[in-house]
Design a protein that fits this description.
The chain has one domain (6-20, 45-262). It is 7% helix and 46% strand. It has helices at residues 6-12, 91-96, 160-166, and strands spanning 49-56, 59-70, 80-89, 99-108, 114-123, 126-135, 140-142, 148-150, 178-185, 188-204, 207-216, 230-235, 242-249, 252-262.
């Protein structure tokens, strides 16, 4: 997988963005768009805004923002959210290594799967430009290069996977349970997996939150020495928003903390 970014740290850290690539199963038969799945999503709504501060070691390295916008147009007769993520470096880190990243997904509002994915990465002159079209009714993904990939039902992209994962019901999860989300990244299918660790209370910016702790299943040796080096805490409520994440990597450490949220779909689980 290509270079990680501030925004990916903020979003993929919840999903374990360093999983091994996997071959997609046999492609299912085409279907009518109207017959695609419909889920009862209670995790987020149009207008939601999340803002995170990202640290590299002791350095306040950057900001990541995620916003859910409701489109006024439909895709193949289906209502769609336009979700935008921006990540950028700041302060001293910005002087030495300028980062300006933007991710967009056009997410089916009822089925929580993407129709279009846009990735624009600019990191110290290193550029990535990706445009993926997800023909979910045909199980085909077409890239900006014109390459077509046959995939299984409801394939996610790098940003939509974060929102789809939040719709998962973890109420009956047991310690050690693993949840996997198949995602199309850099023209490959990656099964992004997270392991449920248990419940904890985390204090961020003076506020205590009731949280579920997860440990993404990662490739040891490439970026992390041990699987235990990457942990994330999400609110123990129907929002399931990441509150805090900590990662020890081979060349230092990264931390991410929530500093602002607006227009959540549900009440946040605050601990006394």
């Amino acid at each position: 997988m290509k270079k990680g970014t501030i925004l990916l740290i903020a979003g993929w850290i919840f999903l374990g963005a360093f999983a091994q690539p996997a071959k997609a199963p046999e492609k299912p038969a085409p279907k009518d768009p109207a017959e695609l799945r419909k889920l009862n999503n209670k995790a987020f709504k149009a207008g939601e805004f999340l803002k995170y501060r990202v640290y590299y070691g002791l350095i306040d390295a950057g900001i990541a923002e995620l916003e859910v916008k409701e489109m006024d147009k439909e895709i193949l007769g289906r209502k769609v959210y336009h979700i935008v993520g921006n990540g950028y470096s700041k302060g001293t880190f910005d002087f030495f290594f300028r980062v300006r990243d933007r991710y967009e997904t056009y997410l089916d509002a009822e089925g929580l799967f993407p129709w279009v994915f846009v990735r624009r990465v600019d990191e110290g002159g290193y550029l990535i430009n990706q445009d993926y079209k997800f023909y979910q009714h045909k199980n085909i993904i077409e890239t900006e290069k014109g390459n077509k990939h046959e995939v299984q039902d409801y394939m996610q992209d790098a940003l939509s996977a974060f929102y789809y994962a939040r719709s998962t019901d973890f109420s009956n999860a047991k310690e050690g349970d693993i949840f996997t989300y198949n995602t199309f990244i850099d023209e490959e299918v990656f099964p992004l997996s997270i392991k449920y660790i248990g419940k904890e209370i985390i204090k961020v910016d003076g506020v205590k939150y009731k949280c579920l702790k997860f440990r993404p299943v990662v490739q040891k040796g490439r970026i992390f020495k041990r699987e235990e080096d990457l942990n994330v805490w999400v609110t123990d409520d129907e929002n399931k928003i990441p509150i805090f994440a900590s990662a020890k990597i081979l060349v230092g450490s990264i931390k991410m903390e929530l500093i602002e949220y607006k227009n959540l779909a549900n009440t946040v689980a605050i601990a006394k």
